[in-house]
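job 3f2a | input accepted
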Amino acid sequence: MMHLLLFTASTCPKCTIVKNFMQQQRIQPEVVSADKNRVLADRFQVFSVPTTILLTDDKTEIARSTGVNPNELLNMFQQFQGGTI
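job 3f2a | predicted structure (85 res):
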């Protein structure tokens, strides 16, 4: 099983756009506040939000999207769901 992390910040309007887009696609990522969880944000080298990261079970990063990029996100969702949306 893969894991989908969405790094956000409370003052980020683009984060809300990405969250809404994921809701429309029925995708439920693990939402991480980059402000409140700097250790995890630093571990994954998150320098701007929103950043979406797809991980394998052993926490190896296999895909990343920064900002609002629907095509990248849809490709990531297909991988996350095993090829189907």
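job 3f2a | The chain has three helices and four strands.
job 3f2a | closed
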